[in-house]
Amino acid sequence: MTALRLRNTLTRKVEDFIPLDPSNVRIYLCGPTVYDRAHIGNARNVIVFDVLYRLLRQIYGEGHVNYARNFTDVDDKINARSLESGRPISEITAETTQWYLDDMGALGNLEPDHMPRATAYIGEMIAMIEALISRGHAYEAEGHVLFDVRSFAGYGKLSGRSVDDMIAGARVEVAPYKRDPMDFVLWKPSEPELPGWDSPWGRGRPGWHIECSAMSHALFGESFDIHGGGIDLQFPHHENEVAQSCCAHPEGSFARYWLHNEMLMVEGKKMSKSLGNFFTVRDLLDQGFAGEVIRFVYLMTHYTRPMDWTDTKAREAEGVLRKWRGLTAGVEATEPAAEVIAALSDDLNTAGAIAALHGLANSGDYAALKASARLLGLLEDHMGDWLKGGADLSAYADRLAALRAEAMASKDFSAVDALKSALLEAGAEVRMSKAGVEVQPGQGFDESRLPAL
RNA sequence: GGCGGGUUGGCGGAGAGGUUACGCAGCGGAUUGCAAAUCCGUGAAGACCGGUUCGAUUCCGGUACCCGCCUCCA
Fold it and tell me: Where is the motif named 'KMSKS' region mapped on this chain (predicted)?
């Protein structure tokens, strides 16, 4: 079997992946803050981790991989959304959570084994903060509890920066109650109108980073295998998680491999809320891009590289999937091909895996093509409706066949050509062979432009 | 300012110190009433300047440009 190799942000090298316990491989992905629709950047790490999850299940067995992805349902963005809309927080988080599950499912992602919600782990967070205070890594000040970055020698290791350098950058908020400008909030007081929980430090709510530390510990223990997210989470979010977890549980190693995916670009720029150039997964689905097609576009680019979303890529992806679905229709999937597993095992080289799939398609091994594609979450039965969808154009096919039969005798093909070009203009695919005539909806098909029969 | 990533053929996009990546598009052919689809074949590359080497697009150094993080963001 090919050894799995992964790029570990912690060491900045591609390393052999060796799980702590092959019968219980544990991976954790930072999930969404549920206050709005997931944008297309949010989908990238989900798809990356979904492929990783499928590959690990292939290697270690389905029952031996545990995948957790949290929902952050306590956050000031949610509070702000509630205040501006007048809707209860619980209603917003419940609705957004379901949107997220629907949208990620539409892209062909499996659901993780665990999907913890932050508000269900407030007790664990408080306990962890208490442990940090008692161990001398955190302190209370003006109702806040802050992590003391100077107390953790390893602070900055994950993101490759030093506390002194960052302070030199002088772009941190310097609250008067902080011992060091880089200290970050573990707990903060809540005004009466904001969500809050009773704690040893008064009524308040957790800070930005503590939830992932508390939830991963509750589900996976002091040490687990892989933790991931977008590269923009490397600092400060993941750096702070490391600090909290390693100081609260020094007997463990927290995450041993860190996987970070590069950003998704639109027109060569990072998609971001502040730039206003982002759109949601639902926007793409509503524009008529099939979930499977969107997924294929993501897989075309290696996860460690910036990826550009373009309509051209989507068209190319659709063409490939259309072809493969045609080749594999009715074929029973066998086992994934060794070359596809090898490509994925090489730091999730999805582009290489797709190339291997082309090889299987060209060599006629459709059973392996189908099985291998499923390792990438492609060519699954439930993802193929986009091809079947649309109008039944067999009446046009019959009419065209009849006209052609007449034309064969009369040698006058003008009526055949007229109907054919009208169908093509409406975006239909027309195939006339000796065996018969086929008319199907093609790319850009518009039923309203069909000619009358 | 500090730290990190990138620059491959018309486009997208990988691997490998020496032997075709792959896909899309293009071109030639087969097929077709004409097309489409399909099949066969085919040209085209690695920002710039140095270094190491028998040999570098691949390793090392520098230059230019692009992008990201350092502030809510995946």
Answer: 270-274
Q: Where do the domains of chain A lie? A: 18-264, 288-387, 394-449
Alpha helices in A135-287 (DSSP H): 163-169, 210-220, 239-248, 281-286
CA of A203 to C1' of B15 (A): 56
Q: Is the CB of A140 under 7 A from strand B?
A: no
**A193: which residues sit within 8 A by CB, 6+ positions away?**
none
Which residues in 236-255 of chain A line strand B, with CB less than 7 A from it? 236-237
**pTM listed for this prediction:** 0.93
ipTM at complex level: 0.91
pLDDT digits (tens, 9 = 90+) for A91-145: 999 999 999 999 999 999 999 999 999 999 999 999 999 999 999 999 998 889 9
CB A13 within 7 Å, strand B? no
Strand B footprint nucleotides (protein C-beta < 7 Å): 1-6, 11-16, 21-25, 32-40, 66-74
DSSP code at position A276: T
Q: How far is CA A24 from the centre of its chain?
A: 22
Q: How far is CA A252 from CA A223, A242, A451, in A?
A: 5, 11, 69
Q: What CATH architecture applies to the domain A18-264?
A: 3-Layer(aba) Sandwich (3.40)
Q: Is A241 annotated as a binding residue?
A: yes
